[in-house]
Design a protein that fits this description.
739 residues, mainly alpha, two-stranded antiparallel sheet, two-stranded antiparallel ribbon, 4 strands, globular, disordered C terminus
Amino acid sequence: MEQMFIYLVPLLGIIGLIVMAIKSAWVTKQETGDENMMELAGYVAKGAMAFLKAEWKVLFYFVVIAAIILGWSGTLVENSSPIIAISFVIGAFLSAFAGYLGMNIATKANVRTTQAAKTSLKKALDVSFTGGTVMGLGVAGLAVLGMGSLFIVFYNLFVVSTGGDVNGAAMETALEVLAGFSLGAESIALFARVGGGIYTKAADVGADLVGKVEAGIPEDDVRNPATIADNVGDNVGDVAGMGADLFGSYVATILASMVLGREIVSADNFGGIAPVLLPLVIAGLGLMFSIVGTLFVKIAKDTDSVQVALNKGNWISILLTVAASYPLIMYMLPEGDLVLSRGGSISFTKMGVFGAVVIGLIVGALMSMITEYYTSMGKRPVNSIIKQSSTGHATNIIGGLSVGMESTVAPILVLAAGIYGSFLAAGLYGVAIAAAGMMATTAMQLAIDAFGPIADNAGGIAEMSGLPKEVRERTDILDAVGNTTAATGKGFAIASAALTALALFAAYVGIAGIDSIDIYKADVLAGLFVGAMIPFIFSSLAIAAVGRAAMDMVNEVRRQFKEIPGIMEYKAKPEYEKCVEISTKASIREMVAPGAIALLAPMIVGFAFGPEVLGGLLAGITVSGVLMGIFQNNAGGAWDNAKKSFEKGVEINGKMEYKGSDAHKASVTGDTVGDPFKDTSGPSMNILIKLTSIVALVIAPHISENGHGHAQADEDVVKKEIQVKISKEIVSVEELKID
């Protein structure tokens, strides 16, 4: 039974994909609306696919070149293998495929949500959330299936077939090759997130500045040439980009726990691999309970709270995962003390491991709640921005920046407490398993996140189709909640990135053959400062790229308004494809520089200055990146919902202000500034943090100080094995005495 347990993981991934297919078929069967709605939805789907094809063409060359280099490097050190190139390609392919699955269903669900909104808010929520569920289950299912299957292959190839030690060099090689899968996933995620973010925000900013501010027409007015590109952007950035992003996060988190689990000698019934296998099984069970949680996201009538329904489903999936983790950990891990030499040889028990899982889930829930508070309509932070909009554009910007900076305090304190608490519970393995627990319900988190862009697209189609006012009101309710859930999803992702980066960092230290990172050394301190700078230059490049692309978009929209007579009178159709082309070309061109920084910085520092300086670089990137990510995500989300609050009217100093007022125009400016914050540079921070750590882990054997990354680890393993054998003999003697 125990020997077959390893095959449970890919089976759970297959179940998730089967449920995804069933839900996808349900969405496809829903009504699509009239011919005009279908035509507009067709423009969006065609534009989204055009972008993906252009992006994939560039990434194909990157993947081929990177795979060749990785394959060659795998021949240079004994604890790697050329097979790492195959692992990398599979990870890259599944990451891109995860993004495609999400975008494909989103471009089908958007028009169906619009049609459903003609009937009721309840029906519109059912369609949009089911579309999001397809993406969530697809991403998590592919990750669990991919990681679980490859681990089985590499475990049998490098450990079982050679009779290798599960705590020694053989398992280290298996996990080093598996790290290639995570590297491929995170590399594609970075380009998809940055490229998609540049695309969507260039179109959004162009549509807002010329359409809403200059021409005075609604955001998704059919007369606006950039409106199709704007709706395409929601799919390629917030759906395809987010799908690849969380796929990479999910995989990196599991990998970090597995790498540290190898260093724990476990006298279990699974051949000693229980600490390595545990995070995979937790991920699989989290996928199952996410499916259960999605069943509870319902509202009975239109006056019910959509946010409450989403929170209910989320909490159910979290609580079920906690409940199931206890018997799982009690069953898989052995009795007595477990020891991980990394981080001071802290001993812990399986109850400590369960405590770390609980801490991780609590941290994830608290991060979501804090983010929801700072970005939700009706709460103090967003209301403060609304109030400051009454005195102009500048004070709106000041208010948003202040909210974003303030919003870093509580999440960092929660994160710090979570790191320390999980470390006390089970050492650095506890920190890693806490991240795995937090990411266990990724399918549910992503379903909640992805429904927002679908609802946003549905509102755009309703506006462009000239549907009755109540239809747009229903889609706006979903869209406003979607803005908040998108922000909470990004907060959740950045928190998991911090925990995962620490675990990857610990794994890197072991393989690189160093004991600590000493900041008293000038070169290490210099590396720390350079690392802290990287998230800033990365953000600068991403935001500047949005600015340049947006300028091109603004000029094109102005040209069409000027040169195509009859647009404003609905007598002529805008040239939507020109705006789609501008966003596509700009995003593909501009995504290269930020991506190159993330991939090359750790390699240059590692090979030029050694593993300890690279450790300083990683520490700087992690701390600076987490703060930048929280700040930008929350500031952008708060600005967005401050703008949306004017849709229904807000009271400022005893006077009601509505759409079109000076205060509303100021809020549009704030939202425009916040757009690249929350959809381009901000959410890219968590990928930057994890990608640089994974690159460091992959090159660690090549820059190891002792030239043999696992020499000391093997010696420690032998000592631990002797201790375990002695303890077993003592137990046997005691049993004989009892008899």
